[in-house]
Amino acid sequence: MEMDELRELLNKDDRFCRFNGMRLDVLRTGYAEAVMEITENSLNGVGIAQGGAIFTLADLAFAGAANSYGFRTVGMNSSISFLRPGLGKTLRAKATEVSRGRRTCVYDVDVFNEDGKLVAHGTSTGFITEEKF
Contact, 62 vs 78, CB < 8 A? Predict the structure, then answer.
């Protein structure tokens, strides 16, 4: 499957992200970027992007990068540190491969605001299945 086809498939099939205004924007082998529009519905009680929305955006970027090899990969573990408030109109998550073995993979994921400032940093570990897309 071509990378553009895979990106479109992942965007279509991830109904939660689609419903919440998130999409994969860039997909290359071992790397992905996901974007989210900050709307009224993504704000928490103090008027900044809700942590769960930021985490989901990071998870989407991880999913893109981890699945970019064409094998269905699912998350096993993720951690995230929130470094500054999610403000502005958009957030962008960038997932970069750290390690990939036969059955597991590890990715660093950074989330940036529209000014390029780091909002959150996380690490995600995935389980690589034998199932191809």
Answer: yes
